[in-house]
Each structure stands twice: as structure tokens, then as C-alpha cells.
Amino acid sequence: MTTTTHVPILILGGGTAGICVAAQLRNRGMRGIAIVEPSQEHYYQPLWTLVGGGVLRASETVRKEADFIPSGVTWIENRATSIDPGENAVTLGDGTRVTYDYLVVACGLQLDWNRVTGLSETLGSNGVSSNYDINLAPKTWEYIKNFKGGRALFTFPAGPIKCAGAPQKIMYLAADYFTKHGIQAEIFYATAGPAIFGVKHYQAPLNNVVARYGIHTMFNHNLVAIDGAKHEATFEIVNDPEKTRVTMPFDFIHVTPPQSAPDFIKGNELLAQPDGPTKGYLRVDQHTMQNPDFPNIFVLGDAGSTTNSKTGAAVRRQAPVVVENLLAQMQHRPLKARYNGYASCPLITGYGKLILAEFDYDGTPTPSIPMIDTTKERWSMYMLKLHALPWMYWNLMMKGKA
Questions:
Q1: Is residue 364 part of a domain?
Q2: Which among 201, 228, 259 is the end of a domain?
């Protein structure tokens, strides 16, 4: 027999986005809130690059999920498996049915390791690693510090991913380490994209970093297969009618896996974006963060079809918009809060060096400190990444104060 419960405000996901919204709603005096989240651990994922670069330990990036569920919010330790927006209902992994008055979808995205043939079988061995799994990030550092020379590959997949700068951050740390230790490395950056970075304003300074390290760039190359035993990676040329493939040997490879919206979203014909670059992600008005067909559903974070870069900084700007507009919807007022697509990508370019890229939907630079030229590599911005941003995350964002 199916168990059914009702929650006035249901939030799917207890990561950055879900906790931010729940905390801000509670700070506004709202009650009747529940969060669906299966994990008992909460990670600050932006630091995983520095774990892979040997700067931090994996344990420094994790806290207990229970410590950040806001007081007065019910924690449903389960995962969502389907949404029925017509019935205002969510089904959970154990078959429980939860109905809601208002739904906030903040469930993030999924890592599709299986879309690269042979990848799952060789991860963590044969010189293959990825910082996108906290259990593998320490392995990345092991491979870097034990690298004796040869070819190192770093990949960027087709389609949206979380923090589009992360795939090259670890490459720059590795290149810096190899340079400082006199290790002869042939470094390749194989990306499915047409340029080093999607925002033109930051392309020139990043190309300068690439040139400084002698990195070979391979644009429009999408990783499709890895043979760990042979130490070979195969790429398919993007937008090539012949689907030409190129196979390269490697001694070390850092893989950024393909990513997509969770299956229970992209399989929902009523909610998933049907086409375009955000196909499968949950439809949402990119400014109000409200679903265009079901006004009692709001979306933020990586699962939404907004075209901003999928970063924690974007969530920090989206959360107050969702909260303000959700309250307006509940009170039958116009939705006036607007999200402009702001995202921030702290691009680590070496140990002690960082370019802080900040931009909006149009790719227009939106620096938080206008008097600082954020196209320059700065030690101060590296310190911001290493110390200030994590402190702000745990002590302010997760408490609904930033």
C-alpha cells in the first residue's frame, strides 16, 4: 500500500541550492518545509580541484548533512524518482508519495560515466582519474606527484557541466607542478568546445596561460572511449558529419565526465526541456526561476534549463530570487525578483594564481569588485578561493545569510 504524506513546501535536493532556499525561507518565518535528500554528507565541491592538486585533503571538503538542515525543516532521507506536476506529487525511492502545495527543484545533475566507453572500468587505475568524484580526487594528486614524464591529457565533454572552468583548473595545477619539478610533460587539453572558455572576455588571458605552460589545445574533440590497459583515449570530432574519431596514447588522463539532468527529470515530458543545448533539463523562466507551465514549481541550481554557468555562485544569486518569487506566488503578487544569469568561475591558473571570471547571461563581465581587473592572475583571488569562499559557504550561505 502506497503511503502518502503532504508538505506545503517541498524541496528536492539538500545540496547548495536546496539548503540555501530552505534556510532563507525559514529566516523569513516560513513553516511547513521539507527537504528530500538521501545523502548524510554535504560536500563543498569547489575545493575538489585543490584536493586533486594536493593542496587540501578530501576530509576538509565535507560536513554532516544534518548540521545544515535548518531548524524547523523536515528532512526526508530519501531520493525523488518521479514528479507528477498535474497531481502536485513526488514519488520517492521507497514508493512513498509526497504531495505539495509548492515545489522547489534543486536536485543538481548526474555524472554519466557510462557515456564514455570503458571509463567506469578503468577509473582510478591505469593513470585515469577525475576530480568529479571525491573518492578519486586524491588519486588525481597521486598520479600528478608520481608522474615521471610523458603525455598528460585533460578533457572537457559535450553539453552543460557543473563549473565549466574546473576541467582546466586541474590542468594548470598539474602543469605548474611539472614545471617546478623539472618534469618533461606533453600536456593536451581536449575539449568538445570551440574555445578555451565560453566567455570571450577571458579567452585571451587564458590563452596566455596555455602558452606559458606549452599546453596543446584540441578544440571540438569529445571523449567517447578509453582503453585503460592500452593507455589510449578516443575522441570524436564535434559536428563532423563523418563522425571522425581520433585515438591518442596517454600516461595520465584527467576525465571530466559527461553530465545531464537526473533521469527522473529528463524523462518527464511535462517538465523537461524538449530540445536545444539544455535538452532534458527542467524548464524554467531564466529570470523569475518559475516553471512556465506549473506556476507552483520553482527551479534553481544545476537541474534547471537556465543557460548560466552551473556554479555555486550562480546558486547564491538564484536562491533569493526563488524565495522572493515563491512568496509572491503564495501571496498572489507579481513576481518581481529577477536573476540576470550571474555566475562566477574562480579559474586557478597555478599554485597561488587565480583569474576570477564573473559574468552574466550575455557573457558581460560583472565583477564584484569593479576596481580590480579580474582578467589578471592574482594571489589575492587564490586566497579568496582557498579560504574566504569556503568560510562564506559554510557560515553564511548554508545559513541563508548570503
A1: no
A2: 259
